[in-house]
Amino acid sequence: DAKTTQPPSMDCAEGRAANLPCNHSTISGNEYVYWYRQIHSQGPQYIIHGLKNNETNEMASLIITEDRKSSTLILPHATLRDTAVYYCIVRVLGTGANNLFFGTGTRLTVIP
Amino acid sequence: EAGVTQSPTHLIKTRGQQATLRCSPISGHTSVYWYQQALGLGLQFLLWYDEGEERNRGNFPPRFSGRQFPNYSSELNVNALELEDSALYLCASSQGRVAYNEQFFGPGTRLTVL
After folding, report:
1. Which of A28, A33, A108, B22 is the least buried, fewest Cβ under 10 Å from its Cβ?
2. Strand stretches in chain B, DSSP E
3. How far is CA A32 from the centre of its chain?
4. In chain B, whose CA is at the least distance from the CA of A94?
5. Rg (CA), chain B
6. Are B56 and A102 in contact (CB < 8 Å)?
C-alpha cells in the first residue's frame, strides 16, 4: 500500500469547515483512498473512500486531485464531537491482504 | 444492529503469562481483523481471519496467535507476555473477503502487562 503524509495536528473553529489534507504521491492506479477517524480511546470509525471522483456522504466530502497524488477530507460544519485523529489510508482492493495500514494521522481539535 | 463487541474491556496480566482476547463480529460478517495500538506506535495490523482460516498476518512474533470459530467470532491469544505487549487491541469485522467492504471496529481491549 502507498505511503501517506498528513499534518500531525490541525485546529478548526466550531461550525466552520475542516479541511484535512493528505499526500499520497506514490499512489497506484488501482489504489483507493480511505479515511477513518478515531475518537479518544475508541475504535476507528470509517468515514468515506474514493478512487478518482469526488465523493460525498452524510459525514464528509472527499476531494481527490486529478493526478490522484493528494486528497482532502472536508467536514462541512465541524462540531466538538469531530475532535479526533483522522487517518488517510490508500489500499488496493482485492482478495489479498485486506488489512488497513494506519499512519500517524492528523489530530483535529475543534475549538468552541 | 449490534456492532462489533470485544471482551474483556480491560485485562491485567504479569510478564510471562498468557492473555486471551475475544471478539464477536457484526452479524453476517465473516472477516475478522485484529490490530494492536501501542502507545507511540499507532495502529498496527496483527491478523486477519475469514471463513475460519488465517488469511494474512502482520509483522508480529508467533506468540501472537488466534483462531476464528464457526460462528465467525474470534480469539486472540498472546503467549509469554512481555511488557511491550501493553496496548489497546482492536478487533474489526467486514462482510466477506472483498477488500472494499469497510471495516467496523469494536471498542477494544486494553491489555496491561505488569
Report:
1. A28
2. 5-7, 10-13, 19-24, 31-38, 42-50, 53-57, 64-68, 74-78, 87-94, 104-105, 109-113
3. 11
4. B99
5. 13
6. no
Q: Does A17 touch chain B (CB under 8 A)?
A: no
H or E stretch covering A71: strand A70-75
Report how far residue A74's alpha carbon sits from residue A63's, in angstroms, rounded to the nearest whole number: 8
**Cβ–Cβ under 8 Å, residues B70 and B11:** no
Q: Mean pLDDT throughout A44-67?
A: 94
Q: Which three cell numbers stand for residue A99?
A: 488489512
Chain segment B51-68, per-residue pLDDT in tens: 999 988 999 999 999 999
Q: Which three cell numbers stand for residue A40?
A: 479518544
Residue-wise pLDDT for A81-96, tens only, equals 999 999 999 877 654 5
C-alpha dihedral sign at A4, A55, B48, A1: negative
| Nearest of A99, A30, A89, A98 to residue A62 by alpha carbon | A89
DSSP A37-67: EE-TTS--EEEEEESSS-EE-SS-EEEE-TT
Q: Which residues of B touch A95 (CB under 8 A)?
A: 97-99
Question: How confident is the model at residue B99, as a pLDDT?
Answer: 56
Q: What DSSP string runs through A76-110?
A: TT--GGG-EEEEEEEEE-SSS---------EEEEE
